[in-house]
Amino acid sequence: MSFEAGRPAAPRTPARRADTMLSLSARAGRLAARQLHTTAAGRRAAGADEQPPPTPTEPIRRERAPPPEDPFQRAARIFSDDMRFLWEGKKSRTFFPSHCDVCIIGGGIMGSAIAFWLKLRAGPGVQVVVVERDSTYRTASTPLSVGGLRQQFSLPENIQMSMFSAQFLRNADRFLTVEGDEPPAIQFHPHGYLMCASPEKAELLEQNYRTQMENGAKMELMTPARLQERFPWINTDGVALACHGQENEGWFDPHALLSAFRRKAIQLGAEFVEGEAAGFESRYVPNMQSMGKQSVAGGNYVLDRAVIRLKNGDVKTVKAAIFVASAGANTAQVARLAGIGEGEGLLATPVPVEPRKRYVYFYHSPDGPGLDCPLLIDPSGAYFRREGHGGHYIGGKSPTGTADDPEPSADNLDVDYDYFQSHVWHHLAHRVHSFENLKVKSAWAGYYDYNTLDQNAIIGPHPHHHNLFMATGFSGHGIQQAPAVGRAITEHILDGEYRTIDLTRMGFERVLANQPLYEQNIV
């Protein structure tokens, strides 16, 4: 094994239908019924009371009912904004949107997918604003991932979401092509995942295989003899059982999918603004009760505005009926701005998501596996897949968190090249002998939005802030489930419930109850 000096930029990975459109009247009725879970009196009062903007460092205020804004001034302000928008045109709009129906904080793959589905279903009936702090996505998790897609999970929800995502990717041209542009080059390579299990993990692998088959996935369970027959380049030493995805598994270009979601959402009418969430303003709603929240003079406070700090330092606010926190590894910080993890009762429990750094190494092995190479996951946790042609591969391994394999610091995205030699290479070389003479050419690092409770996604509204939805904690498999999660969040917002895949078990309630919903197959 050898290394080449330098650290070039990370290489780009080459990597059912749409819901029936709701009628405008039915959609408006559902959205109105959904907003904030207020009573009829509360809804009539909604919008009548507003607070002055907080300072950028002030998270949320609930002390007293703020003074009302004059209805005529409010109507004139909104009309002025809309007329300016129509006059200048969408492409030349430079002013900050002051209001919307849904404000999405975090415009990566998850936020962009949610914006796409909302606009696809609701059209102009729902105004969507997406706040993304870095429009270049230079350090975003999506472009720095390996772009894997698999159904080899232990939970039915994860299996079903990834199965839908596979169908979506196969029809990406129909869903995501922007009028006048070429279809997005998602470059899905359906070569499957190959999960290899040690004798100690063989029973668990078989249990997961049954769950996957029961949910419609197509897998082949392989003995060592069958594994050797199918992939002669594999050393089966230490492998008691393996599972190979026969359909809808493989990898794709993650940056291309992110760009396609964003561009299509913009074409459908979503607005993306570059800035960072700095706080929330709350609004007093009379005659409204909320679970776990003490009534204040016969009413309560709900999230009303997001405070956004722009790149130039300006601080703006955007008023919304519904907010979505989909900021990846930074979602817990956004939630704290809304008092989650900072208060009492339902607000005492923080979002258990933190950034975990993962390395991806790009290497060359001219005699390595050929075109039939799947994405292989070794019993040690080390993995690799082919990257293009000509004997190039990418691979890595997640730390075990033990004393001899600790988690690296997440303060930056620096790469530890020594980690490949000490913790990755010998596993790869043992499984594929031709990797003994591989040469590492470059590497990069990215963040998992790691759920410390159960390494599983948190999806849906917060039990206290009913108008704050979350989509976070995917722990490394978010990009492959983004099409399904975007659809699910859209269903919950527009319909008040999940209509296709029931993700109720993935709600924040399990965090409050400290009842983990473990996903066993985390890579």
From TrEMBL:
Entry-linked InterPro entries: FAD-dep_OxRdtase, FAD/NAD-bd_sf
UniProt keyword list: Oxidoreductase
Gene3D superfamilies: D-Amino Acid Oxidase, subunit A, domain 2 (3.30.9.10), FAD/NAD(P)-binding domain (3.50.50.60)
Region (Disordered): 1-72
GO molecular function, one term: oxidoreductase activity
SUPFAM superfamilies: FAD/NAD(P)-binding domain
Regions of compositional bias (Low complexity) in chain numbering: 22-45
GO annotation (BP), single: mitochondrial respiratory chain complex I assembly
Domain FAD dependent oxidoreductase: 101-491
Physiological role: Required for the assembly of the mitochondrial membrane respiratory chain NADH dehydrogenase (Complex I). Involved in mid-late stages of complex I assembly.
Stated name of the protein: FAD-dependent oxidoreductase domain-containing protein 1
Species this protein is from: Amphibalanus amphitrite (Striped barnacle)
The encoding gene: foxred1_0
